[in-house]
Structures are given as C-alpha cells and as structure tokens.
Amino acid sequence: MPGFSTRILTVVVGDHAYRLRVLSDRQQFADPDGHGERLGISSAQWSLFGQLWPSGRLLAEAMDRADVDGKRVLEIGCGIGLASLVLQRRGADVVATDMHPLAESFLAYNAALNALPALHYRQLRWDHPLPTLGEFDMLIASDVLYERGTAGLLSEVVRRHARQGCEVVITDPGRGHSGGFTRLLATQGFDVSESRFAMEDDDRAVSGRLLHYRRAAPPD
C-alpha cells in the first residue's frame, strides 16, 4: 500500500483528451522514510505536486499552441506533468523536473496512461545547481512564484539553464511575486509580454496570467 489514494482525471487540451493519475485530494500524505521532509517538503505541501492546478492547465494549453520546433524545453516543477505530456505528444525535446520524490513515478505512470513514450525526467532542487542538466531554448513553469524567495531561486535556475536566445513561459494565478521575478530576468536581458486568461479553481472563476519572457540570441 502506498499510503495515499489516487484517482484518474480526464482533461482535454487542444484536440486531445489526457488521462492523469492525481492524488484523490489535498489531504493525502505519505512520507514514511522522511525523504520529503529532508528535501524541505512539509506535510502541508506534500500533496500539492499531485494536483491539476488551473495554472498547470493554462500552461499545458499554451504548450499545445507554442512553437517548439527544434527547441529543447525544460519544465520546472512539473508535478503530474500535463504540460510535458502535451509537449511529448507533439514530439518536442522536453525534460521534466521537480523536487518531489514521487513526481517521477507519477510522470511515468501518466505517460503510459496516455500511450506516450517515457519522458526524460531529472530531480531538480532550485537551490542546488545541476550542471549536467545543460541549457535550453525554452523554460516553462506553472504557479511557481508562490513565496517571496522563489523569484530569486527561479531566476537563478534560468541563469544556469537558459541559452542566450531563450524564452521563459510562466503561468501565474497572481500571487504577487511575479514583479520581482520580472525585474530579475530583466537584468539577464529578458523582455516580457503578459496575457490574461480566465481560469477555474474549485468551480470559481479566477484571473490567470501568462508571462512570456524573451531574450534574443546575439547576431552571428
């Protein structure tokens, strides 16, 4: 017995229906060996990776439309991995990352559930450099600016893994920390455009934002 319960959720993105194994609710918790605690994941935070959040669905919809031809894409904080699954279905070169100890197994299960090849996954802590991960043409994430300090940590992930000509796509429900992140990316040469979208969270409408940062490659 894994110590937690799950359910299968079906969500339509573009022209495709994706089946996802998610945690049954936000009360699930199982950390018998203390692995999550050693990574800094509290019992209150433990279940968050295993939900489909409105920002995650918005990111998946954006990736269904994005120009990813010939680009290497990194998803930061993938959780159950819907955006990465959309990219995998499209044939993109995508690497999914997360810190949660169960993210890899959920991602593998969800890829198999949708008859997709296994995704390339790496465990990534934002405060621990991982040089072997390499550099990317596009970095994507959903609802990652949830605390004041995350803007600085995430900007350093971008610094380490963004190619000179790069895009960063963030979906955010308006938690109030995106301004600091935008200023930090401006120091790295990124410009930003913002689009607003209506999202549903627990059957209520909320306003979401898609932040698209771009940095041009130097001329040849």
From TrEMBL:
Keywords of the record: Methyltransferase, Transferase
CDD domains per the UniProt record, alphabetical: AdoMet_MTases (cd02440)
Keyword Transferase recorded: yes
GO BP terms in the entry: methylation
Transmembrane segments: none
GO molecular function, one term: methyltransferase activity
InterPro entries per UniProt: Methyltransf_16 (IPR019410), SAM-dependent_MTases_sf (IPR029063)
Pfam families reported for this sequence: Methyltransf_16
Gene3D superfamilies given in the database record: Vaccinia Virus protein VP39
Family matches, as PANTHER family: HEPATOCELLULAR CARCINOMA-ASSOCIATED ANTIGEN (PTHR14614)
Protein's recorded name: Methyltransferase domain-containing protein
Organism: Luteimonas kalidii
